[in-house]
Design brief:
The protein has about 375 residues and is an alpha/beta fold. About 45% of the residues lie in helices and about 15% in strands.
Length: about 375
Amino acid sequence: MVTDRELIHRIALTLIPGIGDVLGKKLVTFCGSVEAVFREKEEHLMKIPGIGKTLAQSIRTNKIIERAEKEVRFVQKYKIEPIFYLDDNFPERLKQCEDHPLMLYYKGTTPLEHTRPIAFVGTRRATEYGRTYCKKIIDEIAPFDPLIVSGLAFGIDTIAHRSALEAGLPTIGVLGHGLDKIYPIQNKKLAEMMLHQGGLLTEFMSETNPDAVNFPKRNRIIAGLSDAVVVIEAGKKGGALITADIANSYNRDVFALPGRVNDLYSEGCHFLIKTNRAALVENGADLVFALDWQPKKETTPHQTQLFVDLNPEEEKIVAILREKGDADIDNLIANTQLSSGVVASALLNLEFKDVIKLLPGKVYRLINY
């Protein structure tokens, strides 16, 4: 359990002028703890690479502690969850990104750690085409129970959050301001709904306005939280392309919806596809295939599969897959010592019986048996 004193120092660390996320982590490592940062002697702080006399002096100012104390009162009053980068519940995917925030502020019901988080981003001036396909794709991937992440902005972000709620999916909005306000104000009701079926997340303290400089920082959290980023519509410049670039730098999958060659808000998507920064996506099935999502297991149908009748050749194949895991047809032929024709016929029968599944690369996987 984090004490108020610990929380004050954690927040204060994010307030030191000139100390960013990377340097802040170095400070904690050098000093041994967050609280020790504020006790360390000035001459010792100056030995840390990147910390000069000015920064060392600014660490010890009382104004930082006073502002942090005010923020602690705010998060406690509104039941906001402050999550420090050293906490166990700090999102693991985000922690893998070198420039991840020192502190997150979260209000919601859905855990930030999810098996299938996927971000949808795009222009604030979404066309009917973009709105339709954004909803269509989310509806199509809904059976796989993903977490939909976006930025609560006008346009594609709004459509993504609303579509998720309508499909019964959790959805998290990453904000470019503090949790004391909602921007745009027109999305206030949507944000309230998301608190009961997802949540709102930010690295910014209360009283932080939605200034333009905040949104690229917000975008790195969207990319870092997700396994993949889907760009629905985007112009040549804008936040969606920034998010896609950040996702690429994090080794996340990026997908883009194509449009007509002369559509203004498909130019960014076409650029991403042409330059191999994104894979083309036309529907939800494309995402499911590319991300190799498997359907959620259902206990009742699976129990009936335990009693499927198999012939000797099929039993041999099942035994090999159970022992060795996924295998292609050549491996199965070699291990079963059956002819290629017999193995091919048996594989087809096993697929019909829902005992195996064909994966990309013509590899077979044992399921439901």
